[in-house]
Amino acid sequence: MANYAIGDIQGCYKEFKLALKKVNFNLEKDYLWLVGDLINRGPDSLKLLKHVYKIRKRTHIVLGNHDLHFLACFYGQRKLAKADTISELMKSKESLKYAKFLMKQPLIFKKKIVFKNKSKKVIMVHAGIPPNLSLKNCIDLNKEFQVALKGNPKRILKKVFNNSFSKFSKKMSEIDKMIFFANALTRIRACNHKGEIDFNFKGRINEIPKKLNAWFHFKNSIFSENSQLIFGHWAAIKGKTKKENIFGLDTGCVWGDKLTIMRLEDNKRFQIKRIKK
Q: CA of 82: how far to CAs of 41, 98, 140, 174, in Å?
């Protein structure tokens, strides 16, 4: 049995299938971890979701910002952008089924992996974790977010992508805490020295302004010796963090680069080049 994590697929269905084939993914023994942004910008979002739905019992998923964008559009709280490629998914007769499926997925997932008489805790998020949120904070906020999203999706999705708050505070209202949490875990890249998130920066590591730093360079109790964290979202860094226990998996497949799949037991990476049209 093995656990395989895949970076942002974003509707690149052909590359996704090739990645599974490359590692001989066994549906009866293996587990698949998807770091979010399953859909949008690539050509085959509907095909991708159909496949993932079929193998959902062997799949662990966290939501990404593009997944939340689809949900917001589906529930009428956002409009499709020119660059979006989810029209076919939106018009599908099964769109409600896939929307409900995605709404069940968390923003953070953790699991203990046992291998060769060893074990480690693996934490998965889409973009990252802000410095002042502990693992307990994240687990608690995730539960609250999932309950609220399921109970009143329009109310929550209307407020998602709101940049009103750049740092978590206990003084926030309950809904503001959830919205900040959703934004942070699906969109964070860089913070200032106070841990405040700059939601506008999208460049490379060497392009980060002096007043900012990558979120994974801040100290956080989550990053212990017996745990590792995997994330996607930040294609510009090509998966490189220079950290022993923090792994970026978005290597820009949808932008013409590669799709990365990593075996979590030994962190060995396999890559599939983007198929040219």
A: 10, 22, 36, 34
Task: Give every CB contact of residue 226 below 8 A, 6+ residues apart in sequence.
Answer: 119, 120, 121
**Alpha helices, H only, 58-134:** 65-74, 87-91, 95-103
Nearest residue to 264 (alpha-carbon basis) of 38, 64, 1: 1
Structural domain of 246 = 3-273
Predicted confidence (pLDDT) per residue in 219-246, tens digit: 887 777 668 999 999 999 999 999 999 9
Sign of torsion over alpha carbons 101, 253, 139, 193: negative
The pair of three-digit structure tokens given for residue 23, joined into one six-digit string: 């590692």
Dihedrals φ, ψ of 195, to 5°?
A: 85, 10
Query: Counting every residue, how long is the chain?
Result: 277
Is the pTM of the predicted complex or chain greater than 0.90? yes
Cα separations in angstroms, 272 against 6, 20, 249: 11, 10, 12
SS3 assignment, position 248: strand
CATH code for the domain of 123 = 3.60.21.10
- Count up the domains in the chain and report the number: 1
| Confidence check: pLDDT of 117 > 90 | no
Q: Strands 3-6 and 31-34: what pairing?
A: parallel
